[in-house]
Design a protein that fits this description.
This protein is an all-beta fold and 722 residues long. The chain is 3% helix and 46% strand.
Length: 722
Amino acid sequence: MANALIELPVPYIGDFGKGRPIFNGQIYVGVVDLDPEIPANQKQIVGIQENGTEVNLPQPVATSSGGYPTYNGAPIRLAVDGAYSLKILDKQGNQEYYFSNVEQGAPVVFSDSPVLSRRTVAIAVADTDLVIGQYITTEGYHSANDDGGASYVVVAGGTGTDDGGSYHDMDNGSQLELISHGIVSLFVFGVAGDGVSDDTSKINKCLEYCKASGQQAFAKSAMYLVTDTIVVDCEFIANKYYDRTDLTKGPIFYITHSGSQAFTLKSGGTIAGFTFYYPDQVTTAAPLAYPATIVCFTEAPSTSAINIVIEKNTFVNSYIGINMNGLQANNISTFIRIQNNDICCIALGISNPFNLMENDISANAFTYAVWKASINQPIRGVISSRAVGISLNQSVGTGITNNTFFGLKVAVKMSEFVTITRINNNFMDGCINGIDYSDLTNFGDVIVSGNVFLGKDPNNSEFTACACIKGDFSGGIARGGFVNVFSNVFSGTNGSHIFFNVGDTSNNIRFNITGNSFLNAGRNDVVNTRYSVYINDSTANPNSDVIVSSNKITETANQANTKITGIRIVGRDISVTSNVITNANIAVSLAGLNSNARTTVDNNISRLSVTKDFEYTPTRGVNKIGMNQWNDGSSPSNIASAAIMTIPDGSSDFLDVTGTTDITSITGSWPDRGITLKFGGSLTVFDGLTLNLAEDFTTTGGDTLSLISTGTEWVETSRSVN
């Protein structure tokens, strides 16, 4: 068959909802009954140029500002071989027209009657001359150009329910039925947007229509008064993302009711690009405990809230910003994405009181701020004794990444059960506590990496227990897990950088603190002992494993506090290796408290310690004190020979023995402690008393003798003769 023209009934392609040409539209042509936007379904379009020449066109074919098909900037006529399907999109990619089967050579009929225009919806409703099948456009809803203009078709009365938007009852008994193409403005449902008139019901009706019709609701820059809960289970976005330096340029929801949440966000819903403002929260009165601004909600117990998006919003004076799983204790909230929001919270930014799985909280900014009467005048820089950024409870697989937290009581608080959680690449500035594990009763693997913790110097007494990362399990914990803290930067705090008290637990807690940089713990505190790393498992049956490795710890050289300890660990299995500690009062302080304890201290460097580099209180267990560089000699690598020789508790487990005095006894040490003595000259070590040797050992330079302690005597394990 030969190509035939695609015949249009008008000289240009019109935007049916606006009464104007479609500029930068997209034309697709394909196989009958198939979507022509999909490349596999497309048919070849032939373009007939003004000089009559033909050219094969790629798809889509663009429209000009006048609504004409164009090729290389010039108007062109289109032809295709055989019957075809036709789709036309506007410049945003929204579908304006779709025809599933157009016969070859038949005209494309966009409507079978002329399109009439009326100034407002009220005028169209009152027009008794309009007949069924007639198409109508309005210039506005209440008045022309108020963003409420839309397209309608006249249908029989009773076709739908008059909701002030999708259907309007007409004076002649017919109805206006809304024609929409993927995006619906709130103003099409008659909102005022003046911050005075109550828009709650009209917003809800628009969102209900968009949910039922699978479309997107959008709000232009205006002020919407909300006096009851808005239910969102569709995409609800601003028509553009506004300039956050001036919030008045974007859509603002004025929230004045306190009985329930402002927004209920259901599965599949999106809220994006808005400002939520509580004008009743003022600096001259105590904060009002409003419910959460947004609650992610499921319909019934044991169901899931899934595929929810909250992004690019600003929360102004929210008492609680977002409740990620509300109202049903047995629900599971999954695949919730909360990104790029500014959350100025009075009590709590984001919470999940129940179950969370596989959710993403990223690139948000959390701050405590009480705002003045003007929406663009926050009072910042105030540290809050009440505000929490994110509270996780019963959370599995949640990612908290690239967020900023400023001036909060706690940036991230974990409660009850949390596992497979990533807290990565966040910036925590001036928070009393950065990450708080204290309310956990059961936890698995929590990874804290790549974060920056900047402490402040609060002067009031409630901040004396502050820490960048803390956990108080002294009341006991049902099941322990992994605390992984690596590649973070800790700079300045009035308290400690990392501080954990461990209580009784049926399973051991494993700490891995590696590759971090610590600066100035206990800044300006001249009373309390502070630590860069503090882990205390001093229970009757200590059951924690601790690795502290490859960290750099630096305190201010001239600070008044002489109570700073770089690393303090009390526990069972302890490994402290390859750390560099500078200017601490005590660099490393350890105590092993379990009969199966295994302690390794090796390859550490201490510089300019005020009191001592190393203190160790071993009671029993297998220990290795390796080749550390202690400036004060508290872990010596050499010892002088003597008739009765004592091995210091903090000494290396490989010792060079100087001198030539014979050795008849070595004072006992903790059970299973192993040492190797390397002799620099000739002497005799005698079997007997506290020495259980294979036989007397007469040495020459370079000979070694390895011993293990039973608690009261030393037993030979090997010897080598140079």
